[in-house]
Amino acid sequence: METTNDSSGGDFILVGFSEHPELELILSIFVLILYSITLVGNVAIISLSILDARLHTPMYFFLRNLSVLDLSFTTSIVPQMLVNMWGGNKKISYAGCMVQYWVALALGSTECVLLAVMAVDRYVAVCWPLRYTTMMHPKLCHLLAAASWSSGFANSFLQSSMAIVLPRCGNRRVDHFFCELLIIVKLSCVDTGPTESKMFIARLIILAVPVSIILTSYVCIAREVVKMRSAEGRKKAFGTCASHLIVVSLFYGTIMFLYLQPKDNYSQDQSKALAVFYMILAPTLNPLIYTLRNKDVKKAVRKIMGKETSLVK
């Protein structure tokens, strides 16, 4: 049978959750609510960290980058997802599909590295408190943020360039709610084993290196906390790191289970459920995790709200 390389052109069909139509409407409402909270929460963090001078610190600089990432990440997925769930047309253009999986992978990879950078920031804050402002100076913070973004987009470019050249021979049915790179690869009508192996190595590197940095940072933090004689000091150190640890656990726990599990254990329904968690639910929770117990952010909110009230009067 003759095959043709139609690696460009034509629409893809996003199956999404259409196999469970009774759940699709409920899920779409759930996703819309979460997306709205994500928009409000992350825009609030970005705005507060810019407007309030007390939040002009390395921690909030990196948190602002994380909020921009989460906002962009969900926006690259959710609007198209809702359009497909609410309408009968499940199609997405070839160009739209390519852009979606490239952007989603780039932003997800960037977050992997940025969370490691934030762990280093927490290490310096706990272990070198008196030298924190001099060690984490603005120029270094900007360089670390730039390294996070550039490494994430480089990883996406590398993996996407492997996928885009594969022939699909008319296969355009994507069994997901967005154009996920690994599924696009599996649509190919040739042996994708070598390509998938290279992609696995790339995913392993973008996960393993940041995880190693995070674990090393927190081992050093734990040692420093153990040495503290003051219960108040230990409590303060824990409060400094708790939010970041929760976010790291949610993010890395989900994607490592999703992308590093053996193929024999792979379930597409399970993949969709986990993708909803780390692509939609986690970005919704991140602003709440960082702000609910954060006195600085609460003070910034009161200050901004106070200014607005006085202007109205």
TrEMBL record:
GO CC annotations, alphabetized: plasma membrane
Keywords per UniProt: Cell membrane, G-protein coupled receptor, Membrane, Olfaction, Receptor, Sensory transduction, Transducer, Transmembrane, Transmembrane helix
Annotated family: Belongs to the G-protein coupled receptor 1 family.
Protein name: Olfactory receptor
Pfam family, one: 7tm_4
Main location: membrane
Subcellular location field: Cell membrane
Domain G-protein coupled receptors family 1 profile: 41-290
Ranges that cross the membrane: 25-51, 63-87, 99-120, 140-158, 200-221, 242-261, 273-292
Membrane topology value: Multi-pass membrane protein
A GO molecular function held by the record: G protein-coupled receptor activity
Keyword Membrane appears in the UniProt entry: yes
